[in-house]
């Protein structure tokens, strides 16, 4: 069963994406709801999977993770077994922040983060030598993030 979003839900979701630390009362004030009505709507949004979770946004540079790469991976085969083995292995690599199955030249694109060149070299070797089914790895280093958005347009 799909939840139909109205203007109030969208206003609530926008406020939540901007700052999920706001209290239910503060979110309700923004959305024009009482605290109890806001709580009910938030609960419904969570139960329908629209709000998938809450998290803190960390500053990678402040944590010494200053190098970001986008890595295109080509596999030896498109068989279900090869895809599943690759995906299972990628889940165990903490430096891989995102992994996308692609349609196009590459089978996957990974977004990875590293401390320095040596850290990236170690990760690159791990990706190309130890991940199952890897035929080709092509890396692109991000020089600067121009736009990063974790929220969705509502």
From TrEMBL:
<protein>
    <submittedName>
        <fullName>Lrp/AsnC family transcriptional regulator</fullName>
    </submittedName>
</protein>
<dbReference type="InterPro" id="IPR011991">
    <property type="entry name" value="ArsR-like_HTH"/>
</dbReference>
<keyword id="KW-0804">Transcription</keyword>
<dbReference type="InterPro" id="IPR036388">
    <property type="entry name" value="WH-like_DNA-bd_sf"/>
</dbReference>
<dbReference type="InterPro" id="IPR011008">
    <property type="entry name" value="Dimeric_a/b-barrel"/>
</dbReference>
<dbReference type="Pfam" id="PF13404">
    <property type="entry name" value="HTH_AsnC-type"/>
</dbReference>
<keyword id="KW-0238">DNA-binding</keyword>
<dbReference type="InterPro" id="IPR036390">
    <property type="entry name" value="WH_DNA-bd_sf"/>
</dbReference>
<dbReference type="InterPro" id="IPR019888">
    <property type="entry name" value="Tscrpt_reg_AsnC-like"/>
</dbReference>
<feature type="domain" description="HTH asnC-type">
    <location>
        <begin position="5"/>
        <end position="66"/>
    </location>
</feature>
<dbReference type="InterPro" id="IPR000485">
    <property type="entry name" value="AsnC-type_HTH_dom"/>
</dbReference>
<dbReference type="InterPro" id="IPR019887">
    <property type="entry name" value="Tscrpt_reg_AsnC/Lrp_C"/>
</dbReference>
<dbReference type="Pfam" id="PF01037">
    <property type="entry name" value="AsnC_trans_reg"/>
</dbReference>
<keyword id="KW-0805">Transcription regulation</keyword>
């Amino acid at each position: 069963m799909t939840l139909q979003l109205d203007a109030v839900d969208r206003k609530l979701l926008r406020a939540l994406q901007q700052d999920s630390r706001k209290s239910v009362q503060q979110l309700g004030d923004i959305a024009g709801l009482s605290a109890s009505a806001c709580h009910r709507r938030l609960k419904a949004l969570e139960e329908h999977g629209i709000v998938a979770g809450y998290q803190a946004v960390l500053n990678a540079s402040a944590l010494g993770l200053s190098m970001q790469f986008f890595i295109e991976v080509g596999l030896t085969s498109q068989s279900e077994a090869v895809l599943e083995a690759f995906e299972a292995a990628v889940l165990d690599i903490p430096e891989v922040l995102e992994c996308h199955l692609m349609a196009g030249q590459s089978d996957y694109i990974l977004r990875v983060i590293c401390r320095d060149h040596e850290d990236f070299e170690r990760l690159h070797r791990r990706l190309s030598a130890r991940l199952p089914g890897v035929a080709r790895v092509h890396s692109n280093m991000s020089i600067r993030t121009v736009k990063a958005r974790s929220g969705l347009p509502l």
